[in-house]
Specification:
- By secondary structure, the chain is mainly beta.
- The chain has helices at 67-70, 136-142, 185-203, and strands spanning 9-14, 26-28, 35-38, 44-52, 78-90, 95-102, 115-120, 134-135, 147-154, 160-174, 176-182.
- It has a single domain (9-203), classed as Jelly Rolls.
- It is built from three helices and eleven strands; from the N terminus they run ββββαββββαβββα.
- It has a six-stranded antiparallel β-sheet with strand order 3-4-5-10-7-8. A five-stranded mixed β-sheet has the order 2-1-11-6-9, with no helix packed on it.
- The protein is globular.
Length: 204
């Protein structure tokens, strides 16, 4: 049986030790394994999440420029240093999805830089900056650049992987992300046709 996404939006908050983003968010930590994700209405989606290669964090107050949009979900993060870390999403139904990622860190202290290469399904984002050497302090916390993949395609069988690659003396930070299902052209056309029929009926 092919899994289906019951609603249009899934929201995921990474590592939430002190703040509560609300019931519409799935809250997972750096050790998540096979966690079933819910949509924003609380319905099952058939999608599971597994995290690998991450460190946890007790830091809060990391939302910066994202505070108004993502609120408490962007306030903390999981992180990777000198390694590759992944979020593997299994069971995504065939179709196209928009991904939005928050990578935000409040300060650049110590010897490590807050830089990583960030990809979804092997590709950099459609935005500028696109995730190539993304700086979670300058690009994220200060400037508020949201990483956006406009259309990630699932074949309904293979996993979709969010990947952070941090080199020597580099750190990558993942605060939160959202997945939005993109309606198929046929569905959009039917909605438009339905609206047209209603307009014609009112004119009669």
């Amino acid at each position: 049986m092919t899994p289906t996404l019951n609603a249009a939006v899934i929201q995921v908050d990474l590592n939430d030790p002190a703040t509560n983003p609300g019931s519409a968010w799935n809250t997972v930590d750096e050790a998540a394994s096979g966690v079933a994700l819910l949509d924003t209405s609380g319905g099952a989606t058939g999608i599971t999440l597994t995290a690998s290669g991450w460190n946890g964090s007790g830091l809060t107050g990391q939302a910066g420029a994202f505070a108004g949009t993502f609120g408490d979900a962007a306030d903390d993060y999981i992180w990777v240093e000198n390694n590759t870390a992944t979020i593997t999403l299994s069971g995504i139904a065939a179709g196209s999805y928009k991904f939005e990622i928050v990578s935000s860190r409040s300060e650049d202290s110590g010897s490590s830089t807050r830089i990583a290469d960030i990809t979804v399904a092997g590709s950099f984002a459609d935005t500028t900056p696109n995730g190539n050497d993304f700086d979670s302090v300058d690009d994220g916390f200060i400037a508020g650049n949201l990483l956006v993949w406009d259309s990630v395609t699932s074949n309904g069988t293979d996993d979709i992987v969010i990947q952070f690659v941090a080199g020597a003396s580099e750190n990558g930070h993942l605060n939160a992300f959202t997945i939005t299902q993109i309606p198929e052209p046929s569905s959009t056309a039917l909605l438009g046709l339905g609206g047209l029929v209603l307009i014609l009926r009112r004119r009669r």
